[in-house]
Design a protein that fits this description.
- The chain has 13 helices and 41 strands.
- It is 14% helix and 34% strand.
- Strands 1, 2, 3, 4, 5, 6, 7, 8, 9 and 10 form a ten-stranded mixed beta sheet that branches. A four-stranded antiparallel beta sheet has the order 11-41-40-39, with no helix packed on it. The protein has a four-stranded antiparallel beta sheet with strand order 12-13-14-15, with no helix packed on it.
- Helix 6 packs parallel to helix 9.
- 50% of the residues are buried.
- The chain has two domains: 273 residues, Alpha/Beta hydrolase fold, catalytic domain (Rossmann fold, 3-Layer(aba) Sandwich); 373 residues, YVTN repeat-like/Quinoprotein amine dehydrogenase (Methylamine Dehydrogenase, Chain H).
- The protein is an alpha+beta fold and 689 residues long.
- It is globular, with a radius of gyration of 27 Å.
Amino acid sequence: MNRVNCVGLLLAVLFPPSVRADEGVSISEAKKDDSGVLVHEVRSPYQAKLTLVRVLLPGKVEKGKTYPVVYVLPVEAGTESKYGDGLKEVQKLDLHNKLSAVFVAPTFSHLPWYADHPTKPEIRQESYLLKVVVPFIDKTYPVKAEASGRLLLGFSKSGWGAWSLLLRNSVVFGRAAAWDAPLMMDRSGKYGSGDIFGTADNFESYRVSKLLEAKADKLQKQKRLILLGYGNFRAEHEQAHALMDKLKIAHEYRDGPDRKHDWHSGWVKEAAEMLLPPPAADWPSWRGPTRDGLSPEPSGWQKGTWVGEKPDWQVEVGIGSSSPLVAAGKLYTLGYADGSDAVECRDAKTGKLLWRSMYKCKQYGRHHVGDEGLYAGPSSTPEFDRGTKLLYTLSADGHLNCWDTTAEGKAAWGKNMYEEYKVAKRPKLTNQPQRDYGYTTSPLVYKDWLLIEVGSTKSGSLIAFDKASGKQVWASELKDEPGHCGGLALMTVENIPCAVVLTQRNLAVIRLDAGQEGKTLGTFPWVTDFANSIASPAVHGDCVLLTAAYNQNAMVKLKVSKDGIKEVWRQKLPSKVCTPVVHQGHVYVCWQRMRCLDWETGKAVWEGGAFGDPGSCIVTADDKVIVYGLSGRLALVETAAHAGGKYVELAAREKLFRTQAWPHVALADGRVYCRDRDGHLACFSVPTK
């Protein structure tokens, strides 16, 4: 018995499988590959030679918690990758973390059609999955060992396989998603299938259309089958959709968009999110749960209806441009009134005040210069740490405070950046008048650190504090003055974790890896008139979007590597305030008008609407954009996937408030939260299915 099977009894107690593995199976211990994926080598009587099982776990696995598991089914034999690598695409998109799921990619010795050959024991692909892979994953990893927790994802022949596996084994698997698959194939032999099915009779037992007819009565309540997009097989999808409608089979169907027939053409995220409808999400950080303006929740758009004409409730939270946060059913805000900043915690559903913590603070930063009639109070958005339940706030005048939300907002620690680091007034770097708005950049929790853009020319631009005690851990070697944007961003550059900082002088990428903390990986010069680079850097993969109006008057795409930062494109389509959101090959940004740009070229795809200088946007899980601007104009807009090359506004609510909507809009647990700079906050419920 191999090493894994030796501990099988213990693991079976922890994670009891619902299907048993046959004897004669040898599975190695996991080894990490270069990307951090766990790889097991498998020998079994069901496959002709050595196969692999690759496992991608969430970055933080909570003790005692079980996770849904998505089987990413390959379309090629062995480790061939002519059509890409599904698990690499999942990892690139960070779906294992964003969707909090385990992703598993098995390999097969022959071209996978997910069938058992009638006479060749070494070609038993269905049995291999059911009797070896699934039981092993159930026993070894913290997954939900039940049908509802086992999901199937594939395209082309593996899309066929995902559906046939579910239809034949509905007590083992819960849902199956197929993209661009030959689902209506009516005979064996096509696309290399003949050697796997063996005979016409055997093929008929796996034929998807026949299985749909046979199982129709059991598939009419829950939407267990997902059909989306196309590249080569649109006609087959249309036929499968029509057949299921005829049979009254409940299913999810999306026709398009047309994409290249491989793993990396942009469909995997959409399919995975349809498989794993996320639970009610928090909005715990600047720009949301993943700090990128993308929400795992749907917009709530339903057949012409969206949010109500009037909000569910409204409250006053104090002056300021700080954005609202939502975590674990609580709404957190930071605002100024009568010589103090107030941190408030409310019931996120009702708006009822639960507690308030206050501290004496100036209305403006101590070096404030210019535009006092356009803003006041705190601009920095708080940061909530899900692990410790601590809340971090940063005032315009440099007060960095830590609050214990489990103890009704009791102060845990605090310090002042101006006083501790002797931060001076921002210098005048262009021939235009200077502006100094005090501290604006949101704190960011990274592992055990709290990252703050302190902007000290003596100590460092970026400083890491111990998030529990507030003690300084390290400071960056870069010593630029602070910028004026809303938040830092995280990115990984060639496996190096980094923080992206927009100072008054540069876009800087700072290393966070052990032994290199605070070292500068690269800088890109970026000086704006009035020090007015307000929009934050937007990270997508190994690239960063940078934008500002005034003398820059552009949006720039930068590619970051260990060798430095290179400009990819520059377009005269700037944003003054709104940070761009990148989604499925497009960039969405709101300044004056809502715009959609092509990610690869930066060229405009469409624009429309009217939102003024204030602006923020969220791309939702159902491919809609929530847009917020002017003095409280809240709109819902189609993304490029469904807009047909033009601006399509589905719904709008006008003039919610009287002053500028500088605070960014938030979406959490089926509610949209809007605030203006005078501290009026409104909550709208979005329709639910």
